[in-house]
Amino acid sequence: MLDDLVALDKRHLIHPVVSWRGHEARGVRILTSGKGAYVTDAAGATLIDAFSGLWCVNAGYGQASIVDAVQRQLTEIPYATNYFHYGNEPAIRLAKRLSELAPGNLNRVFFTLGGSDAIDTAIRVIRYYFNVTGRPKKKHMIAFQRGFHGSSSLGSGLTALKNFHDDFDSPTPLQHHIASPYPYRNPVGQDPEHIIAVSVQALKDKVAEIGGENVAALFAEPVQGSGGVLVPPDGWFKAMRDAARDLDILFLADEVITGFGRTGPMFGSEYDGVVPDLMTLAKGLTSAYQPMGALMVSDEMYAAIADGSPSDRAIGHGFTYSGHPASAAAGFEAIRLYTEGGLLANGQKIAPRFAQGLTGLLDHPLVGDVRVRGLLAAVELVTDKKERTKPHANLQISQHLARLSYEKRVIFRAFSDDMAGFAPPLCCSEEDIDTIIRRFRSVLDELL
Ligand code: PLP
């Protein structure tokens, strides 16, 4: 039975972000059930999931109240469009709840199916905004060199990871990247003030190069996730937000990973007290019990678009499943678990133990850097601590990491450039955190 499924997978299913031939050779591991922080696969192995699926199952597995909310909604009415002038109660209530929680006056919500189309929606909305408010030259968009903003045809151009561009004809000429803050490997050193100043200057230089009148927006993650969990110095995100305002460009906080307690507060922007002009959400929004993303914009931006558009024009942007009622029901209940259900507080409670456990790994001969904020972290491996030498050239560590992750029954993300990423569910106990650290240390020991 399992062999049959593996063979069928190889024959028919195209997986995201794999080498297609490589996947045929390697095959698939099929996950079948989950409870709390643990998942079980079809071969009967139980693993602790220190990556919450794909940094998305923030509430953990087996949350019966989310399942019940979805089931109730599907029974009542499985689909009620938000197109034109119809609507459904869960989407309306979720939009209101997000407005209450989001920073500042981000009070308007457009629902999508995930993060990539939330970014795509943002790109279209930003273009539309400048066109209808009389500044049609403002079309260029800037992001960071290790940033990730999904893989839609437009948004992938803002993503800066090489394999998302190679042979895909992206980015477009309207998309630009500036250096990421990467303290461990920063040519400018590790002084926080200096790193912040360098990022601000890089933005100013890029805007000057393109011409301020042509630049629409800066896209930034509070902590860059897929680029290697690059935790910036405190104050960095605020400095970028302020610089964007000074340069008269919009500031979008991409909170697809950092939202919903991942870094401690409800949203990563809160860490530095930032109020962005736009915010994108997905993943933890429903804790991945249903697919859903969102773009949030300020009341001012909404009003400018509403008033700037011809009154008889239906603004042509939307998806069949925008504000899907079952997804919205999952989102509303997931947020209830984060807030009244105490998951956000639990995440904050276990975060110091997580940070302590990971930084304790710095005594290991292969660990060069540990980066952590809340329950989001990366461990960067080196073969020579003093020289910070990357090991992949001689050890092909990332391949071994992926294998050992399974053997030692701890799921983390083995990044291709010798890093391990962690994002455990907010429901973890302190024992779960200790298990993650202990098992990961045994992975490292096997690499020696
Ligand atoms: N933005 C960020 C910061 C992400 O990390 C991701 C996915 O990991 C996306 C956007 C794209 O989200 P999705 O995979 O739901 O399309």
UniProtKB/TrEMBL annotation:
Keyword set includes Cell division: no
A GO MF term: transaminase activity
Residues passing through the membrane, by range: none
Keywords tagged on the record: Aminotransferase, Plasmid, Pyridoxal phosphate, Transferase
Superkingdom of the source species: Bacteria
Keyword match Transferase: yes
UniProt cross-references to InterPro entries, sorted A to Z: Aminotrans_3, Aminotrans_3_PPA_site, PyrdxlP-dep_Trfase, PyrdxlP-dep_Trfase_major, PyrdxlP-dep_Trfase_small
Cofactor needs: pyridoxal 5'-phosphate
Family to which this protein belongs: Belongs to the class-III pyridoxal-phosphate-dependent aminotransferase family.
Protein name: Aminotransferase class-III
